[in-house]
Design a protein that fits this description.
This protein is mainly beta. It is built from two helices and 56 strands. Strands 3, 4, 6, 7 and 8 form a five-stranded antiparallel beta sheet that branches. Strands 11, 12, 14, 15 and 16 form a five-stranded antiparallel beta sheet that branches.
Length: 850
């Protein structure tokens, strides 16, 4: 305040001095004096004023925007909005909102606009306020405190829920000195605990073995042969102090196998022929028998058929082998019986080769004689010959060749579908008019007769066609037509929407046109007909109608320039042939090229098994489908492709356009048209798809044969649910020694080989019983009339009716479960002759009430 007054006085003195220097002002009429008055002496200068002190700093504003920026079980973090010009902040933390606990004041820099308090207990409530500061040292000024803000640390995380008890405990592998157990994974667990024991009461203080979440199996080794051991498992969630576990599963008994015999030694080939091979080996002490496998592969597949001998027979001879084939064999011994063998290790694999079959004595047929020309036209010469030197049954067909003048030998066109004739004559067609030709003929035996060979050519015959030789030739008239075909539609018997389309290569010379003739297989009208297929007709006049339908056969149609022909309105399994000949006009009349013939068929027809042969459909053995048979009505003139399509029974929609694995499968077939699929999977629907082909570019559409369903597999492990059953072990009425009440609850697991619906199972309760029920006690074909069945994530759950007042002698309850086919699949099988199995194998679960 004093400094202000000093500054005001100095300013007043300065103003008075300035006024003294300003001259006085008067009227304008008064003249200025001529002689100036002398100036007064100036006063002495005033001393300079003292410097003013700096102004005091204004305190900063209180921080705003105080908020909770983060919390955790052991910390709280506050933050606030920066104050403009602040050089720092002070924070006060308190356990009460009155801030009476004299907490420390924490300094923060201008950049530190937050504060985190750590080391708190979960759920702690705390309070914080903050003020801004400017300046430093003695000149540091702080503003007002902000309003306080309450923060609460997070509550402690709850302990994890115990996981579900593992299910599906089963023996996955065993040997004479080891057993391996496995179980179904439990979602969301951190691991498993396993207990192994030598008794089912687990009183031998078994160790607890920890397994990771990925380790759903346990293998115990160095065990005694033929000894029972016990194992149970529980699931765990969390880690460290937060780790919790489920209840122990029901234990599962595993028994090691009997001791195995050693591998036989000295296996060797002792003899072979062109169709057999014999092996021998050294006996194994104590062995009850031997099993030998042989194969054409050096690595013998495990599923190769095994051949058994008794304990005293150490040789085996394989019959019906191909000649000159290398075979590989191995042998092993077994203890026990063939139905329940205990196998030893395989011996060393040895190889041997069957011998070459003896060469047959081959006799050459005699040449035909007296080859003579008959009638001649501009384009044909009729040939005849005599074959008295050969027996009629020795000759199957004749081959005729021709050679134009200055040309080379080729096959004569005798109007047949091939290069052979079966009679002693040939009308050689497609010849040039006025041209000399040489001809020859020779006899052929049957293609399957390896005791005879083709005869020498006959003496050459020269003959000339009528008319004058043509000077100008049409190009391409004798080109190979390369006839191909495709058929579509009518994939089932009785359909009439099939078509066959033939096509052939066009000639380069566009003056060439084509005539076609349609041929029908006699078996189209009579399936049992033994008549041979017709041959192309002689080139005569065209038919009266141009309608290309199945009834217009054995006649040539009017020539046209097209390169394809389609026959429509056909049924399945129909066979037709198309004769095609190129033709062009000349000054002397029409000319013809070589006649081509191509037989084609619509989609094949599904056949049936002949009486006394293999039955069609699935083959069932001991509640398992071992094979499926299909039959196809095949024609000797075509090849057949067969492939498999399949789907799960609970799926829908088989399609021949989607074969198994996208590939064609190799099917076992016999000469009767049977195709067999070996070892199909359980509870799956299969169908065979077949089509006829002749060459790479010709073929029919696919036919889907009857679909068959295989039997379901065996139900998985049946477990007694201890926690869900009302019975407590050992609880009895002390007066009557009876169980006062119990409702058993069972569970059995599912798999892809089992039905998804409850109606796909037969469930029978056996309760109560004096002795432990066995698998043979599971009988009948209908399910229980009482009980409750539900579907869970782990499988089916079955709750039986309450068991009350059970005496001391009746202590066992049990459940029998088997899968079955239902609906149309079961109806089709039960109606077969003989009747086929429609149910899978029984699975039994037992439980003692005490």
């Amino acid at each position: 305040m004093a400094s202000r007054f000093l500054r005001s006085g100095a300013l007043a003195l300065l103003a008075l001095g300035l006024l003294a220097l300003i001259p006085a002002c008067g009227d304008e009429d008064v003249p200025a004096p001529t002689t100036p008055a002398p100036a007064p002496s100036p006063p002495p200068p005033a001393p300079p004023p003292a410097p003013a002190p700096p102004p005091a700093r204004e305190p900063p504003a209180a921080p705003g925007g105080l908020r909770i920026s983060a919390t955790g079980p052991d910390f709280i973090e506050w933050s606030w909005t920066p104050v403009s010009g602040a050089t720092g902040y002070e924070v006060q933390y308190s356990a009460n909102e009155a801030f009476t606990d004299e907490d420390e004041t924490i300094a923060r820099t201008a950049e530190e606009i937050n504060y985190r308090r750590t080391g708190l207990e979960p759920g702690t409530r705390a309070y914080l306020r903050v003020r801004a500061a400017v300046g430093a040292g003695d000149e540091r000024v702080t503003g007002a405190w902000s309003s306080h803000l309450t923060g609460v640390a997070d509550a402690a995380e709850p302990a994890p829920e115990p996981p579900a008890m593992p299910s599906g405990l089963e023996i996955s592998e065993r040997g004479q000195d080891f057993i391996e157990w496995s179980w179904d994974p439990v979602p969301g667990v951190s691991g498993y605990d396993v207990q192994f024991s030598t008794n089912e009461g687990f009183t031998d203080e078994p160790e607890t073995v920890a397994r990771t979440a990925e380790q759903t199996s346990y293998r115990r080794e160095r065990l005694d042969p033929e000894t029972s051991y016990y194992l149970r498992v529980r699931a765990a969630a969390g880690t460290g102090d937060g780790r919790v576990t489920s209840e122990w599963s029901t234990h599962l008994t595993g028994t090691t196998m009997a001791a195995r015999p050693p591998a036989p030694t000295g296996l060797e080939v002792t003899g072979s022929t062109d169709t057999t091979m014999t092996w021998r080996w050294n006996a194994v002490a104590g062995a009850d028998g031997y099993q030998l496998q042989h194969s054409d592969s050096a690595t013998i597949p495990d599923n190769t058929q095994g051949f058994y001998t008794n304990a005293t027979t150490t040789t085996f001879t394989a019959p019906n082998l191909p000649s000159r084939e290398t075979r590989y064999a191995r042998v092993r011994a077994y203890f026990g019986t063939i139905s329940e063998p205990v196998f030893g290790d395989w011996s060393t694999t040895v190889e041997g080769t069957t011998e070459r079959p003896p060469a047959p004595t081959v006799r050459q047929l005699n040449r035909p004689t007296r080859l003579d020309p008959g009638s001649r036209t501009r384009t044909s010469i009729t040939l005849t010959w005599v074959d008295d030197a050969n027996d009629e049954e020795d000759v199957d067909r004749y081959e005729v060749r021709q050679r134009p003048e200055d040309g080379s030998w080729g096959v004569a066109n005798c109007g047949t579908s091939g290069e052979f004739v079966t009679t002693e004559s040939c009308v050689a067609t497609g010849l040039e008019q006025g041209t000399d030709y040489d001809f020859g003929v020779r006899a052929h035996p049957d293609s399957d007769d390896d005791t005879k060979s083709v005869s020498p050519w006959s003496s050459t015959l020269s003959a000339r066609t009528s008319g004058q030789q043509q000077e100008e030739e049409v190009a391409g008239g004798d080109d190979d037509l390369n006839i191909t075909w495709k058929s579509t539609g009518a994939t089932t018997v009785g359909g009439s929407d099939a078509t066959i389309t033939w096509s052939w290569d066009a000639a380069d010379d566009r003056r060439i046109q084509y005539q076609v003739a349609l041929l029908a297989d006699p078996r189209n009208a009579d399936a049992n007909s033994a008549a041979a297929r017709p041959k192309c007709p002689a080139l005569t006049s065209a038919p009266a109608t141009d309608d290309f339908v199945a009834s217009t056969t054995r006649q040539w149609f009017t020539k046209e320039p097209t390169f394809a022909k389609t026959l429509a309105s056909l049924g399945a399994g129909q066979v037709f042939g198309l004769c095609v000949v190129s033709t062009w006009d000349t000054d002397t009349g029409p000319r013809y090229g070589d006649v081509g013939l191509s037989w084609a068929t619509t989609a094949p027809v599904e056949g049936t098994a002949a009486d006394g042969r293999f039955p069609a459909g699935p083959k069932d053995n001991a509640n398992k489908t071992t094979a499926i048979d299909w039959y196809v009505d095949r024609d000797a003139g075509f090849e057949y492709e067969v492939r498999i399509v399949s789907e799960g029974v609970d799926s829908s929609g088989l399609s021949c356009s989607s074969p198994e694995d996208g590939t064609e499968l190799s099917m076992e077939k016999d000469s009767n048209g049977r195709y067999r699929l070996k070892a199909p999977k359980d509870y799956r629907r299969y169908a065979a798809c077949v089509r006829a082909t002749s060459g790479t570019a010709s073929g029919s559409s696919w036919t889907e044969l009857t679909s068959y369903t295989t039997l379901p597999g065996q139900v998985g492990t049946v477990s007694y649910l201890e926690k869900e059953s009302s019975h407590v072990l050992g609880t009895t009425d002390p007066d009557t020694n009876k169980v006062t009440g119990a409702t058993p609850v069972w569970q059995f697991s599912l798999s892809s080989s089992l039905p998804e619906a409850i109606g796909g199972y037969i469930v029978q309760f056996i309760e109560p019983a004096a002795t432990k029920p066995e698998l043979k006690d599971c009988t009948g074909t209908t399910g229980a009339t009482t009980g409750d069945f539900t579907l869970t994530e782990s499988g089916f759950k079955a709750t039986g009716s309450a068991v009350t007042s059970v005496t001391a002698s009746n202590k066992w309850v049990a459940i029998c479960v088997r899968a079955r086919l239902t609906g149309a699949d079961a109806t089709a099988r039960s109606g077969a002759t003989p009747a086929l199995v429609t149910d899978g194998k029984w699975r039994i679960g037992t439980k003692s009430l005490r």
